[in-house]
């Protein structure tokens, strides 16, 4: 009998010295042992070729598909063939899993829903507090040779300000506890959770997004990317925000319309933005993001809110354990089942 094949399409942890190095798959080998064949997606020395024909070739005959930022498509599933048993997303967000397609094909899919709550809530707080205290303009001015306490503007006392959280799941709740400590009031907008949950976290639920936008001094996004939330924060939404308010997005790039955001920054509708995520992943690849990146009131990071040594080690081990369980047919009750339960929204 041939060994089961597992394709990791685009694992970031496999890239050492610019190229994927199979010797770095130590955790995966440890969990899966020598009897499982590990296959990795093609890479051109700068990036994984996630949509290339070579990816389809490597998918042929696999038993398990593990994706990081690769989009699951009909083509990829067709290339994998009938032996494909399970799809695993190395991460929390499932927008690239194509849950509707997987459900249609009866393919179970899993994510790692809770490995980086600490990291994302800390990173959100870092972006938010950098904005509140104007750390980036201060840094730029001082290393540029000028000592000026007013560079970047005069901050406001956060203890008189209101924090607004959109999406009150695992990360939104951790943000309420951590970042909420700096603010006098925490508002929550999440149409899928009850008011009592917010109150249990010292926050107040509001009924509409507009209400939250109109009352918050810093708005932070923690909802998933779905057809309903795509461009949730567009020019019209930004018009509802307070002129001195900040926007933070460490959820998904497509939640925010880049052109609307630039108009809001340039027109002074809002005071600044902290962004960890963009669409496309690298904002330099889309000219609509260029003026946002160049704006002095913006602080950005490269979709790495989830990252820490501990989180990476944990997600790798948990993915490998999911793969092993799937290969052994032990999937009943595993944490992280995405299809069919979450596919509807
Ligand atoms: P979760 O599933 O625990 O919570 C998401 C919450 O959003 C749920 O309570 C849901 O009811 C709510 N929601 C859904 N639609 C909404 C809408 N239209 N308006 C307001 N709320 C809505 O997910 P978790 O773990 O809190 O993660 C949230 C998102 O953060 C993920 O979907 C992922 O896209 C993103 N993420 C980003 C990371 C990064 O490195 N930047 C790392 C991990 C997650």
Brief descriptors of the model:
345 residues; alpha/beta; Rossmann fold; 32% helix; globular; binds 1,4-dihydronicotinamide adenine dinucleotide
Going by CATH, the homologous superfamily of the largest domain would be NAD(P)-binding Rossmann-like Domain
Which small-molecule species are bound to the chains here? 1,4-dihydronicotinamide adenine dinucleotide
Rg estimate, integer Å: 22 Å
- In terms of DSSP E residues, the strand content is 5-15%
Strand order of the largest sheet: 10-9-8-11-12-13-14
User: What is the fold-level CATH name, i.e. the topology of the largest domain?
Assistant: Rossmann fold
Q: What is the number of E strands?
A: 14
Terminal Cα span = 40 Å
CATH class of the largest domain: Alpha Beta
Q: Write down the overall geometry.
A: globular
CATH architecture of the largest domain: 3-Layer(aba) Sandwich
How many domains make up the 3D coordinates?
A: 2
Instruction: Please give the share of residues in helix.
Output: 25-40%
The number of helical runs is 13
- Overall mean pLDDT score? 96
Classification by helices and strands: alpha/beta
Unreliable sequence segments: none
Major β-sheet profile: 7 strands, parallel
Following the backbone from N to C, one meets helices and strands in this order, namely EEEHEHEHEHEHHEHEHEHEHEHEHEH
